[in-house]
Structure prediction request, 92 residues.
Amino acid sequence: AGLPLPAIRQQISSAVDIIIHLSRLRDHSRKTMAITEVLGIDEQGNIILNPLYEFTEDENSTMEHVSGSLKRTANEMQNIFKLQLAGYTQKF
Prediction:
């Protein structure tokens, strides 16, 4: 048979650093809805996510046109080691 679910979740959490969620909206546009950091798995085997940016609609949105932007959450990026190895030194 296949791999057990906890093993699959462990492999995903160790292989994926960032998830960028794109979506088609009601006005048929495509927008980035969220940027989330993958932190690992918890004791129950669930993947732990750290949302960094989330799309927020603004007052100009209508049923025919979605208007808004990605907003930074209060969550700090946790795993910056790979970025530091690549030469990035700014705060994340």
